[in-house]
Amino acid sequence: MTTEPTTEPTTPPARAPRRVILHVGTPKSGTSYVQDVLFRNRETLAAADIHYPVDRFDAHFLAALDLMRLPWGGLEREAIGAWDRLARTVRGLSGTTILSHEILATASRSQVGRALASLGHGTPGGPEVHVVLSARDLTRQVPAEWQENVKHRRSFTYASFLRQVQDPERSTRVASWFWGVQELPDILERWGAALPPEQVHVVTVPPSGGDPGELWRRFSGVLGLDGIDLDLTTDRSNPSLGAPETTLVRRLNRATNRDLPPADYRPLVRELLAHQTLSQRRESPRLGLPPEVQTWVAGLEDAYADEIARRGYDVVGDLDDLRGARVAAGRRWYDPDHPRERQVASAAVDAIKVLLLENARVGASEARLAEELAETREALERSYLRPTYQLREKIVRRLEAGRPGRVAMRVYRVARGRA
């Protein structure tokens, strides 16, 4: 008697546990670089079951605008529905999904709750959610934030900015935004309240002058990217300016804001002048803090580092990185509101030079296009003079003169797809 061969029941391969990593800021802490590396390496990451779900570079920015209902120069209209679409995509992915944008740092508690719920946190079978906050010392963040305001068309002085951020009431728009994205314990409390502390990660930005690859290694470890061969080159960054260069841009804002539309400001001033030209002047004095503000900032940095340690979050790096370098007593600080005019003039010469070169490039491009257009017109005129064209034109005019001819022409055009 023969027996039928038996087959053991097979079990499907185990699905990788689902994780969602939310990188929520802060601004000026390496976020632009990280986002560009993730964007450029989407396919490589997906092969490792790590997903950065975007269809355009600024997709997570638009989703964040939608989540927080932030006005942003009209972009908020384009962002309508972006967060829900992103969350729907995330819920359908396996493995690890990474979302990243620095303006998420300012989300309110209710907005954080909505974000986590939309991603499936706390539901049966929902993902394990981790929050990552990259953080830099306030000694560098305070002047960097004034510079960012200047690069976004603001024209108030550095002294005015410092008064606003030091105001305990935080009543101005500038102060409200600054502390919304820079008050580390508050950001971590809002984003980490529903998570165990080991799933809340603080990536500290190393001090200036160290190994430039160290910050990426910290990001790579916390995002689970170690061992994956990624292209780390990038042409997207947010470089800093020196103090005289920032003064120059602020003066340009005061002189041109009424006449230069925002659509022209970004490519000409922010990109061409600030990012591509003035940021290359590395010998200029850097922005810093006046002594009295430095003392105030140092107290906040100590309090932030102590509170983060007390709460038991996962720190990637060193909490001492959150304590900025102190300027030696007696050393004069560079006041951008009262600069050395020779240094500002030198920066202005570089700015004028690059604008002249850009104007010449655009003029040459317009001349080339005009020449191509003239050649096209000449070719058309020559074709109109050919006997075959003139014969066809004569036949068409005769047909259009009578009703039967017009009907015939209509049938012909329909047949040729010209109706």
Helix-residue proportion: 40-55%
Task: Give the termini distance in whole angstroms.
Answer: 78 Å
The major pleated sheet works out as: 6 strands, parallel
Give the overall silhouette: globular
Fraction of residues in β-strands: 5-15%
Radius of gyration: 30 Å
Spatial arrangement of strands, main beta sheet: 2-3-1-4-5-6
CATH architecture of the domain at 19-137 and 173-239 and 290-326: 3-Layer(aba) Sandwich
Per the CATH scheme, the topology name of the domain at 19-137 and 173-239 and 290-326 is Rossmann fold
The low-confidence runs, each spanning 5 or more residues with pLDDT under 50, are 1-16
Number of strands: 6
Number of helices: 17
What integer is the average pLDDT? 90
SSE inventory with pairings:
Layout lengths: L18 E5 L7 H10 L1 H6 L2 E2 L7 H10 L6 H4 L3 H10 L4 E5 L8 H10 L9 E8 L2 H14 L6 H9 L6 H10 L1 H9 L7 E5 L9 H10 L19 H14 L5 H14 L15 H21 L2 E3 L24 H45 L1 H14 L2 H13 L4
Parallel strand pairs: 1-3, 1-4, 2-3, 4-5, 5-6
Helix pairs in contact: 3-5, 8-9, 12-15, 16-17
